[in-house]
Design brief:
Layout: H1 3-12, E1 27-34, E2 39-47, H2 52-59, E3 62-65, E4 70-74, E5 77-78, E6 85-91, E7 94-95, E8 110-117, E9 146-150, H3 156-165, E10 170-173, E11 183-188, E12 193-198, E13 205-210, H4 214-218
Length: about 230
């Protein structure tokens, strides 16, 4: 199965049931956007313990096809094979690898549905718009240690602030090797930009922040809902 097919399957293979909610008294976030985060349709909180499908059904009008296995529309915005646009979901910025009825939200998780065109676009496995996730809560509750590495001494103060935001166990110059199993936030010189890659949904993840890191250090919401890049 191709990655695109797996991502589509994760977004589409949903069921309206899949048991009751397991409310642990905490909260998770639910975001619904379109066009790669360009337009926000909903941003709020839901009870943790819900599945991603239960969460979106509680807060939005959802239509399905094929016995509830395929998300046809959310808030009247329908999947279109002709245009190559569909609904996909992420958890903490990570493209889900399972159906929405199979992923149960934990305290602090961010479930993010986005309607976007996939045809002619690179396949998406991880996006930056949930930062400081996935450093804080990971995927399926599995969180790796986080580290920050920077190349310029002038970026050291911002690196330390960003380290606190992602609960990093180490903030150091790039000359200090990062542990192989760690999630890494790398601060690099160059034209402003912010991107991420991953090895698997459970990590490790590597985020690369280029340019002056001070803005993101002051306000991590600077990249909220963005798939990549800086405003």
């Amino acid at each position: 199965m191709t990655l695109r097919a797996a991502s589509l399957l994760a977004a589409c293979l949903v069921a309206s049931g899949c048991g009751g909610a397991r409310d642990d008294g905490g909260e998770a976030s639910l975001w619904i956007t379109r066009d790669r985060g360009e337009k926000v349709l909903f941003a709020g909180t839901v009870a943790s313990g819900l599945t991603v499908m239960q969460a979106v059904r509680r807060e939005a009008d959802v239509e399905t096809r094929y016995g509830g296995r395929f998300v046809q529309s959310i808030e009247g915005i329908s999947s279109s094979g002709r245009s190559g646009s569909d609904w996909f979901y992420f958890v903490n910025g990570i493209a889900a690898d399972r159906g929405a009825a199979e992923y149960r939200l934990r305290r602090g998780d961010i479930a993010w549905w986005d309607y976007h065109r996939w045809r002619g676009r690179p396949e998406l496995r991880i996006v930056v718009g949930a930062f400081p996730e996935p450093f804080l809560h990971g995927f399926r509750g599995k969180r790796r240690p986080a580290v920050v590495r920077y190349r310029r001494l002038t970026h050291a103060a911002a690196a330390r602030t960003l380290g606190r935001r992602i609960a990093a166990v180490s903030v150091a110059p790039a000359s200090v090797p990062a542990p192989a199993e760690a999630n890494v936030l790398a601060i690099e010189p160059g034209a402003p930009g912010f991107s991420a890659t991953l090895t698997s949904p459970e990590g490790p993840y590597r985020f690369v922040l280029r340019g002056d890191p001070a803005g993101l250090a002051r306000n991590p919401r600077l990249v909220r809902f963005r798939f990549e890049g800086l405003p």
